[in-house]
Give the backbone structure.
Amino acid sequence: MNSIRVLIVDDSSVMRKILERSLRQAGVELCSVFQAGNGAEALSVLAENQVDLILCDINMPVMDGLELVRQLPGVVNAKGAPIIMITTEGSESHVVQALSAGAKGYLRKPFTPEQVREQVLPLLGVKA
Amino acid sequence: MKTPGEMLGENASVHEGWNARLEMAVREVFELMLGCHLTAGKAPSEEAMDVTAMIGLAGQLCGVMSIQCGAKSSAIMASKMLGMEPEQIGPEMCDAFGEICNMVAGNFKYKIAGQSNGCMLSVPTVITGSDYRLHSLTDAPALELRMQFENAPLVVSLQIHN
């Protein structure tokens, strides 16, 4: 697996660090880790940087994860990057909305490194 | 059909069922995200409970969930979440503790049948200091769990308003 560029979007800086660590524990080689605290910040990051994977919280201030996913098809630097939604609430309606809008998977917090591996690796073309 | 809040107020067995689910929700978050086991009961330590995380619930289930512990405990929790030494923990302490409360509330809601769609969570708030009292505007009962995190007290409470 080639090293990848990931964008982690979560309003908690602690959760962003946990997600980065979980990706590394899952065996994902990261060459660049971009972070954003909400959907609007994520769009600013994507205006300047191309990414290969996006991990995105749903519940965030300013612009939530669902709105970000809806806007991503128009973002050149996110083209082809699978989106995995991270949710605390496990709300079925949120998950359905996210998947309908283009997300490729979701992780419910709390999660294990194994669950991160199972979600992420297949989307990067690696057998989990 | 009764709301979950009505059921909580009127039916002791439902209350007990929710207590068990709340405990399971708390234990899962600590085991999966912090890699540690909580023990039940009041801790022998007299550590001041000076960090409180709170999160609001709105919709079908309306109320407030709070988690209280000492500053030393919350620094240890943050260090376990981040893979750092407790002495290295600074402003991350409040962020980590708020995130724990967020995950406990979300996990509890997920375990109450039918609540994952009809109940929303607020952004968590963390209060430091112990010289305050929390006043509820209703007489609704509260679920309260007294647990031990590394031999220090940890109190989780859920006040339901509807």
Q: What stands out?
A: The two ends of chain A are 12 Å apart (CA to CA). Residues 13-25 of chain A form the longest helix (13 residues). Chain A has one domain: 4-121. The beta strands of chain A are 4-9, 30-36, 53-57, 83-87, 105-108.
